[in-house]
Specification:
This protein has 22 helices and 25 strands. With 654 residues, the protein is α+β, with helices and mostly antiparallel strands. The protein folds into 2 domains: 188 residues, Penicillin-binding protein 2a (Domain 2) (Alpha-Beta Complex); 340 residues, Beta-lactamase. Helix 13 packs across helix 15. It is elongated and about 140 Å long.
């Protein structure tokens, strides 16, 4: 017995068509889905299939930019590319190939890898010889990626300097963090990271450093990234470093560097109204551009061993006898203590007799002379006598009020105290009973044991110009916080020196006479009432003296206070004063000296580093089947230890 109808209605043509349509639809769905998975989404699923783990990669933040007082970005950032190595995944084959790509011996690569492994063998670390690589190296790494386990490329920012100068000891430089520093700095740093080593880069490292970001990627069995994890939704964005806004006048800085040339010395100019540094030069110096990129380690070794000690910051750590620039302070001491009045006259017979010693006056016989004339002609006899009359305790007390014998606290970081001798100092270093008050004669003219830094002398000059208001010198006026998105003013110390205002005015008038009728007449700038004092400090017998000039202007509304000094440069009026005059011309009259060349490229095209800097690697376009293939670089031999050049011993820093 059959269950099917005998009339054939079940297998009708209509049912067959329906069945065929259903089968066709199911086939289309399966084929379409298969095509979607294999053709359209095939690469995605292939990456997922190849991904063996999730890897955390730190992304480097851009360091904060640095601006001058006019809003010019003088220190910027440029993107670069660096090679990283994860020690746990790095192999001998990777090292061999990478050695040929970079053109360095594999032993040097392994040396860096082993250092990184001590810190964290599972974390990617930058190679010194793989920093700031060019397009050719980038291409080679990408082409051989499958044969380079543990090797990767990252975006690694580098510093760019957009002005025709160095400002080396002000800005400082960045360099790879040392192994010893890693233990002190904590988890924020990894091997190969850059950190500020000197100057503002170091003093404000916490501000300009920024915060690293985190990127999560899927990696294959070779530890190489194959895809973003979770479409990048799990990544943690980094934070750029805070920007520094300085009081520096870039034009003044550039000119001061050029005027100092190859001399050894420094120039410091500050705004006496608030202590902002307008100009900060120490010579010899170095080019901080050469620390940016992969040449930093080599360049450091060059400047470290160079004659003249370019790494020495003479403006804050150079300690010298102040010479006659000390004389205005002696007059302030004596007047405040009632030892002299502005009209008091003392004899000059070509020198001063103290006991069985006679100290000469280099200006000859001046006769009976008052303070104003003594300052104008720089009479030593007058100040020999003041030194003895003031006495040791008062000498030390008033010197301390102006910040001598102590650090100014300038925010550049490295600084020395100078030397303000006291009774305790003399008893300890000379011996109790082995010295007499004759030392006060030497101290009265800024000689003997008295030593100052140019920065201390600049702050002292500014305090005189402001009638006793001492403002702490500083480079940074504001910090732009990327976290708060606002500028934050930086506060500094400001204090009144307890000396009567009228005595400061007397001293200022005497310093004005130095410029109008005394030893610095060439500095007189009509209409700006420049006040100044030359100084010529003896160093050692047979050696040329230290050249000094201090000044401020205008006399009753000061806007700039300046110190210029040169080691072994001779008379203050011959070396230091002419430099100060040209700087004053630029500051007040905006006149750049016609005899001083200047590269103004950066002013026409902001952000462009002058041509004297090391050119950045270009990225040639490779198109078509006949493009030049990558050629392996010759592997360099291991460098032999360089024999350091023996520098002639220089005169002691006084």
């Amino acid at each position: 017995m059959s269950l099917l109808p005998s009339d054939g209605a079940f297998g009708s043509a209509q049912r067959q068509r329906i069945f065929q349509i259903i089968v066709l639809a199911i086939s289309v769905v399966y084929v379409g889905r298969l095509a979607w998975l294999q053709i359209i989404q095939g690469s995605v699923y292939k990456l997922k299939a190849e991904a063996q783990a999730i890897k955390q990669i730190a992304t480097e933040p851009f360091r904060g930019m640095i601006y001058d007082r006019n809003g010019r970005a003088i220190v910027q950032n440029a993107p670069g590319f660096s090679i990283t190595v994860t020690p746990y995944e790095f192999t001998d084959e990777s090292c061999r190939r990478l050695s040929k790509i970079l053109g360095v011996p594999d032993s040097l690569i392994w040396q860096d890898v082993q250092k990184s492994a001590k810190f964290n063998k599972f974390a990617a670390a930058k190679l010194f010889y793989g920093r700031d690589v060019d397009f050719e190296v980038i291409s080679a790494v990408e082409e051989q990626r499958d044969s380079l386990p543990g090797v990767d490329l990252i975006v690694d920012p580098k510093r760019q300097y957009a002005f025709d100068g160095n400002a080396a000891h002000l800005l400082g430089y960045t360099r790879e963090v040392a192994e010893a520093q890693l233990k002190q700095l904590g988890d924020a740093y990894s091997p190969g990271d850059l950190t500020g080593q000197t100057g503002l880069e170091r003093a404000y490292e916490r501000n300009v450093r920024g915060i690293k970001g985190l990127q999560y990627v899927a990696v294959n069995k070779n530890g190489q990234r194959v895809a973003s994890f979770n479409d990048g939704k799990s990544d943690v964005a980094g934070l750029e470093g805070d920007d520094l806004h300085l009081g520096i006048d870039t034009d003044l800085q550039e000119l001061a560097e050029k005027l100092m040339g190859s001399a050894r010395g420094s120039v410091v100019a500050i705004d006496p109204r608030n202590g902002e540094i307008l100009c900060f030069v120490s010579k010899p110096d170095y080019d901080p551009r050469n620390f940016s990129g992969r040449g930093g380690r080599t360049y450091y070794n060059v400047v470290r061993d160079a004659p003249g000690i370019p790494l020495l910051n003479r403006a804050t750590t150079g300690q010298y006898h102040p010479g006659s620039t000390w004389k205005p302070l002696m007059a302030l001491m004596a007047m405040q203590e009632g030892i002299i009045t502005p009209s008091t006259k003392l004899p000059c017979i070509g020198g001063y007799q103290y006991g069985n010693r006679f100290a000469t006056c280099h200006g000859g016989v001046h006769g009976m002379i008052d303070y104003k004339t003594a300052i104008a002609v720089s009479c030593n006899s007058f100040f020999y006598q003041l030194g003895v009359k003031v006495g040791l305790e008062k000498f030390y007390y008033y010197g301390s009020l102006f910040g001598f014998g102590q650090k100014t606290g300038v925010d550049i970081g490295e600084e020395k105290r100078g030397l303000l001798p006291s009774r305790e100092f003399m008893d300890k270093h000379v011996g109790k009973g082995n010295w007499t008050n004759y030392v006060l004669m030497n101290w009265g003219i800024g000689q003997g044991e008295v030593e100052v830094t140019p920065m201390q002398l600049a702050a002292y000059t500014a305090a005189i110009s402001m009638n006793g208001l001492w403002n702490q010198p500083h480079a940074v006026r504001e910090i732009y916080s990327k976290t708060l998105n606002k500028r934050i003013k930086v506060s500094y110390e400001s204090r009144e020196i307890p000396i009567r205002k009228e005595y400061f005015q007397v001293v200022k008038e005497a310093m004005r006479a130095v410029v109008t009728s005394g030893t610095a007449r060439l500095v007189d700038l009509p209409g700006y009432d420049v006040c100044g004092k030359t100084g010529t400090a003896d160093v050692r017998k047979g050696q040329p003296p230290q050249s000094w000039f201090i000044c401020f202007a205008p006399m009753n509304d000061p806007k700039i206070a300046m110190v210029v000094t040169g080691e072994g440069a001779g008379y203050g009026a011959a070396f230091a004063a002419p430099i100060a005059r040209k700087l004053l011309d630029l500051f007040f009259l905006k006149q750049w000296p016609a005899d001083v060349a200047r590269d103004t490229t950066w002013t026409r095209k902001p952000g462009i580093t002058p041509a004297k800097s090391t050119p950045t690697d270009s990225m040639p376009q490779r198109k078509g089947p006949f493009a030049k293939p990558y050629a392996e670089r010759p592997v360099a031999t291991l460098p032999r230890p360089a024999t350091p050049t023996t520098a002639q011993p220089s005169a002691p820093q006084r």
